[in-house]
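Colleagues,

For the teaching module next term, I've prepared a clean inverse folding example: a structure given as tokens, and then the sequence designed for it. I'd like students to try predicting residues themselves before seeing the answer, so please don't circulate the second half yet.
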């Protein structure tokens, strides 16, 4: 069985379209950041000099002062005035400080921490303490009040490393392109005639394909996130132990965690979602006889997901694959009147779905090859 899985995996990896796409993705992800680093080195003399300028804003200014600095440099840019190196660093680094107070989305509503506290007091007076809305806001307040106040930190390459939205797009495309033919090519040389000539061999063929598909999904996951690491590393991994809310794109996180904890949490979610998505593509490969239709459907799941997000967001594999929004924002799900954080529900549902999808593929696959 391991030998058959190895054969299947080799068949996937040696396809020219998969290799060419992987190369194109590498160029798309790494080259722009490499060019950006070259530009920084040209403007500042070196990456180290840029870091020195960027770190000069740490623990030196209030949030209002940082916001004023950002607005001043932004106005210069909009008026086409000549920018100093300090202006360039400000425009690049102080985007997270460009808000008076952090807002947290609660479904359709947006609240600051002080507004959550005021709303809780109002609901307490009107006797709504036992309502789900009160429990959700109370949970949000208890979590967010433990998060340290925002202060600027130089976060270097962490913005690249935590760009899980871009990573999700490329993981999706590579997984679909690699696994769409998995069950469409049973009669085109994927398995040797000797193996398929026996009933037991055909049974093992299905399991070996599942193994190969999951291993391929892991390879894609590691490859894309390695490219993120390569693109971010030249700017350094400074600030790893700083609060996650100092990271651009995570200022509204309700979790009192560090940047490195935030990164590995997102990474774990994306890994689970990658495995589940790989299994979904395998199911599509089994059910849809046409290869092009399988590819279009698989990629369509990714791009159609946002339009379905209000219906399936809580268990949406693509939303979990993107990960960043799930950890960077407060989202609670009503479980029998109790607010449960979306991240917990997503992990549990994803693991259950992985198990169900695996058994479904084995059932449908055996039914097909034994027919």
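(Answer key — instructors only)
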């Amino acid at each position: 069985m391991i030998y058959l899985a190895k054969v299947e995996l080799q068949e996937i990896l040696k396809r020219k379209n998969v290799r060419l796409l992987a190369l194109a993705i590498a160029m798309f992800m790494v080259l722009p950041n490499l060019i950006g680093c070259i530009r920084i080195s040209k403007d500042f003399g070196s990456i180290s000099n840029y870091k020195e300028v960027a770190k000069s804003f740490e623990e030196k200014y209030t949030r209002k002062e940082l916001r004023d600095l950002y607005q001043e440099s932004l106005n210069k840019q909009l008026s086409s005035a000549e920018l100093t190196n300090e202006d360039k660093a400000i425009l690049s680094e102080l985007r997270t400080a460009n808000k008076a107070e952090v807002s947290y989305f609660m479904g359709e509503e947006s609240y600051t921490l002080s507004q959550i506290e005021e709303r809780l007091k109002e609901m307490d007076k009107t006797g709504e303490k036992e309502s789900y809305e009160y429990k959700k806001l109370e949970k949000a307040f208890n979590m967010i009040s433990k998060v340290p106040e925002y202060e600027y930190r130089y976060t270097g390459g962490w913005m690249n490393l935590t760009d899980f939205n871009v990573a999700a797009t490329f993981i999706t495309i590579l997984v679909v392109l690699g696994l769409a033919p998995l069950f469409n090519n049973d009669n085109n040389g994927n398995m040797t005639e000797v193996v398929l000539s026996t009933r037991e061999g055909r049974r093992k063929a299905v399991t070996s394909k599942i193994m190969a598909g999951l291993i391929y999904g892991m390879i894609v996951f590691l490859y894309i996130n390695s490219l993120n690491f390569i693109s971010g590393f030249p700017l350094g991994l400074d600030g790893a132990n700083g609060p996650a809310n100092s990271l651009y794109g995570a200022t509204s996180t309700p979790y009192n965690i560090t940047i490195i904890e935030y990164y590995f949490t997102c990474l774990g979610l994306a890994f689970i979602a990658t495995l589940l998505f790989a299994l979904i593509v395998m199911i599509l490969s089994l059910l849809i006889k046409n290869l092009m239709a399988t590819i279009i459907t698989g990629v369509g799941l990714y791009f159609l997901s946002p339009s379905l997000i209000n219906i399936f967001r809580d268990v949406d594999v693509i939303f979990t694959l993107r990960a960043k929004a799930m950890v960077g924002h407060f989202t609670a799900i009503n479980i029998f009147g109790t607010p449960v954080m979306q991240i917990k529900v997503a992990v549990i549902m994803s693991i259950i779905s992985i198990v169900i999808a695996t058994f479904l593929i084995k059932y449908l696959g055996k039914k097909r090859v034994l027919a």
